[in-house]
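Re: that backbone. Tokens:
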């Protein structure tokens, strides 16, 4: 399936997170453009992401307004209409 060109993807990360690196590499390998936000530099933003996602860890990826906690490859593929 083709990915939708209007997808808006934001990856919330920290600089020391190995799962964040894996997620970003996966998106790059699938030619998915994304915005990266390092929440370790902004306490207010970190609290907002915890509230939105219900998770205290990263990565959290927001795909067209839907939050996915962790590197949930299956769910991310579903949301982006790409093969797993």
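Recovered sequence:
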């Amino acid at each position: 399936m083709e990915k939708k060109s209007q997808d808006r993807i934001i990856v919330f990360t920290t600089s020391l997170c190995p799962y964040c690196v894996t997620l970003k590499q996966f998106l790059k390998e699938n030619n998915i453009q994304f915005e990266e936000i390092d929440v370790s530099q902004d306490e207010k933003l970190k609290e907002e992401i915890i509230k939105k996602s219900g998770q205290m860890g990263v990565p959290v990826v927001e795909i067209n307004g839907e939050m996915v906690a962790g590197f949930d490859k299956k769910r991310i593929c579903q949301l982006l209409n790409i093969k797993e």
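The domain at 9-80 is CATH 3.40.30.10 (Glutaredoxin). The chain has a mean pLDDT of 87.
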